[in-house]
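Hi F.,

I've been meaning to write this up properly since the lab meeting, where we talked about keeping a consistent format for the predictions we share between groups. The idea is simple: the sequence comes first, exactly as it goes in, then the structure tokens exactly as they come out, then a line or two of notes. No screenshots and no reformatting. I'm using this chain as the first example so we have something concrete to point to.
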Amino acid sequence: MNQRSGFTLVELLVVIGILLILAYMSLSIYNTAADSDRIRSSARQIQSYLEGARDRAILSGRRWAEEGREGSQPNVGVRFLVDQNAGNGGGTRPQVNAMVFVESSPAVRGKMRLNSSSFWENNESENYGQSWLNLALRGQLYTGLEILVYEPSTSDYDDMKGRKPQRLRISNVIVNGSGIPTGEIELNETPTWSSGMTGDEFFVQLQVGPSIMANQEPVALGSNIVIDLTVSADPNGDGYATDTKLPSAWLKPQASPPPLPQPQYTLSPPLDVMFSPRGVVTGPAAASGLIHFVLRDVADVENGRVLSDPNREGDELIVTLFTRTGHISSHPVHPTDTFRFAETGEVAQ
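Output, unedited:
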């Protein structure tokens, strides 16, 4: 009787088939775990940055008090950097792909002169190298900043002390046809003392925007993970961002809006979240109450997939900042009510 010393072809094919199935199942499980880890790692990264900025602000405030310094205490925050190849820059949905620490800058004092029409230019600055043009080129001059305008009888910078100024805000930073700032601004209203004639001149104090902290470089989010600004800006998808989950200062109406349901708004960088020495959010973002950052796979954002799409490439997660307390948390997306878990604290079943 002959004994078989090997395997038949059918037996080999069956074994190979079983191995391939196990390998496919293992790879699928690994990819799912890797996707989940990427999104959670990015959420922890954002949370760590926000908490780091809050801690730095509190520490700076303590040092300021211990050293007996005068003036406003410094604020520290995080600037969310918009991908210039997407959204406002490249035509697809706007998204954040990096962050960097920023700090408040000292006020700039100088002279403001009516140039033409309603455009005002910086005629003279007490702070060397701090012309409005330089500030605009560095991203520290933008819509919404407060500017104090003093009456014409003010004769010099020292004379500004003790005088009550008119508090105005920058309503527009003028740019040329190439989008480069010209060094001119528009105000939300005409100064009380202005005659409306070209050459009108006043002493002013401008609270410039935050600047990137020394020795700090932008840090990217996890691989292919971005913050989907469209979902947070316009949860209802009506194009008007009436129920926005972002600070209203980050959005501005489009001068020539496209047809609905396309967005009737545009982003208004910089997207800064600033913390005061008390550890709470300060500045324009403070009024939001809650700020939601929706983390998604970049492929889902660029392909316009809705949240919880069964064909999505990766997981989705929401990082929430409570501006009144400085508390930060992360939650999954609710399948029918996007921000429900984030706003109520319910746990997904």
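Notes:
Helices lie at 9-66, 132-137, 229-233, 298-302, 340-344.
The two ends are 64 Å apart (CA to CA).

If this format works for you, I'll send the rest the same way.

G.
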